[in-house]
Amino acid sequence: MNNRLQSFISENVPKIDAEMHKLIQKENPTPQLKESMIYSVNAGGKRIRPLLVLAVLEDFMKTSKDALKVACAVELIHTYSLIHDDLPCMDDDDYRRGKLTNHKVFGEATAVLAGDALQTLAFTILASLEEVDSSKAIRLVGLLASASGAKGMVGGQILDMEGEKVSLTLEQLEEVHLHKTGALLSFCIEAGAVLANATELETCQLREYSKNIGLAFQIKDDILDITSTTELLGKPVNSDTASQKSTYPSLLGLDGAKQQLQKYHENALESLSFLDKEGSLLELFADYIVQRDI
Amino acid sequence: MNNRLQSFISENVPKIDAEMHKLIQKENPTPQLKESMIYSVNAGGKRIRPLLVLAVLEDFMKTSKDALKVACAVELIHTYSLIHDDLPCMDDDDYRRGKLTNHKVFGEATAVLAGDALQTLAFTILASLEEVDSSKAIRLVGLLASASGAKGMVGGQILDMEGEKVSLTLEQLEEVHLHKTGALLSFCIEAGAVLANATELETCQLREYSKNIGLAFQIKDDILDITSTTELLGKPVNSDTASQKSTYPSLLGLDGAKQQLQKYHENALESLSFLDKEGSLLELFADYIVQRDI
Hints:
Chains A, B: Belongs to the FPP/GGPP synthase family. 2 copies of one chain form a homodimer. By secondary structure, chain A is an all-alpha fold. Chain A has 14 helices and 2 strands; from the N terminus they run H-H-H-H-E-E-H-H-H-H-H-H-H-H-H-H. The first copy, chain A, has helices spanning 3-27, 31-42, 48-59, 67-86, 102-106, 108-126, 134-148, 153-163, 170-195, 200-227, 230-233, 239-243, 248-271, 281-291; strands spanning 95-96, 99-100. In chain A, a hairpin with a 2-residue loop joins strand 1 and strand 2. In chain A, helix 7 (134-148) runs antiparallel to helix 9 and helix 10 (200-227) runs parallel beside helix 14 (281-291). At the A-B interface, helix 2, helix 4, helix 6, helix 7 and helix 8 of A face helix 2, helix 6, helix 7 and helix 8 of B.
C-alpha cells in the first residue's frame, strides 16, 4: 500500500474506533445492549467508509470538528447492517472476520435490537453535530437515510436476496451493488463534500467517483473470491461459485471482470481530475481498492 | 367515547393512513419490500401516537403543513418495532390484531429488512419537512432518535426481556414502561409542542402529561389482561399471569393497580391546567386511555 495512504489510515483508524466507543458510551445503553453494540463495532474491518469521509476533507484541505462524528455515523449504519445480515434468517453466518457473529454471542433477540439501536444512534449523532449549521445537518440526515433505507442499502439487500434465486444480467448485478454497497459509499463521499463546502459541480464529480469505486470494490471482491486463498482472505473462497450466485466473473469471465475493474478504476481517477493534483487521498483509495489482495 | 374525540379520530385516522401509504410509495421500494412495509402499516391499531401529535397542535390552535408527516414518522417507528418484536427470536407471535404477523407472510428475512427500512424512512421524512426551519427539523430528528434507540424504546425492549426472567420492583417496572412505550409517546407530545411553538414551560408541563398517560396506558393494559375477555380484547387474556411476568396488578393487586391508574390519570389532567380550558383533546385522550375497554 502507498505510504501516504498507509499513514493516513494508521493515524485515523484509532481515532474512529475511539470516537465510536465514546458515542456508544454516551448513549448509555443497558449493560447487555452496550456489550452487544460494542462487540460488533470492535469486530474491526477496514473502516473504508469513515476513512473516505475524512479523505474528502483532507483532499479539499478543510477541517471540520464534525467530520469524525459523521464518519462514525456511517460506520455504525454499516455495522448494524452486518449484524442483521449475519442473522440465521438472513445469511446465517457464525463467523465474521474470524470472530463469532453477534447473535452467536448475545443471542438473536439482542442482535436484532443492537442492530436497531446502532441504526438509531447514527441519526442521534447527526442530530448533535456541533459545528455545521442545521441546514447542513438536516441535509446529512436526508442523505444518510436515503443511502441506508429502501432506496439504498436495504433495497440492495432485498435485490440481492431475490437475485440469489435467478441469473442476473450485468445491468441487474450493477443495480444490486449500486444499492447494497454503493449507496453508503456514495454517502461517505457526499457527506465529505458537504462538510468541505464543495461546489455543486465538484459534488457531482465526486458522485461519479464514488459510483465507480463502489462498483470497483465489488468486482474486486468477486475476483478475490476466485483468485485468493482462504488463508489470505480470512473467509472461504469460491463461495460464489458454490452458491451459483451471479458475479462479475460468472457473467464476464475472469479476464472480462478484470477489464471491467480496470474501466471502473480509470473512470474513478478521471472524475477526480478537477482536484488538479496527483496523489490525492481519493486517488490512492481508488488504487488501493483495485490493487488490494484482501 | 367522547363525541369530540370520536370525530377527531374519525377525521384524522384516514388522513394518517393515506399519508403513510404515500410516503412509502414515494420511497419506491422493490415490490416485495413495499408489500411487506405496507402490510404492517395496514395492520391497523389505534394510531394513538400520530393522533397525539395532531392533538397537541389542535389544543394550541395551531396548524402545520408538516404535522401529518411528523405524525406518520413516529407511527412508522412504532410499526417497525412491532415487526421486529413479533419475530421468532423475540416474542414469536404468529398473529397481531387478528392478522398474520409480517414474518409469517413474507418470511423472516424480509420482515427484518422491512422493519429496518421503516425505521430509516421515519428519518427520511423528518429530513424532508417543508414548513419548519432546519433547526426545528434537526431537533425533531434528535428527539425521535433519542426516543427510539438505546436510551428509549429499544432500551426498554432489552429491559423488558431481562425483566421476564426475574421479579421486578414497582420502580423497575416503571423504568421498563417509561422506556419501552413511554419514550415514543413523549416524542409525540414534544414533537407537537415543537410544531406548535410551545414555550419551554408549556413543553415541560406537556412532558409531565405524556409521562403520566404513558404509564396509565400500560397499567390499563395490565388491568384489561385480567378483567377483559379474549373476544373483547382480540388477544388472549391472562397472558401475563400465565407467563408470571411482573405487572402492576401482580405487584399492587388489582385494586392497587386501579388506584395507581387513577393517580396517573389525575396527574395527567393536572399537568394540562396551563391550557386553561376544559375538554381539550389531550384531556379527552387521557380520559379515553383510562376508560377504554380494549
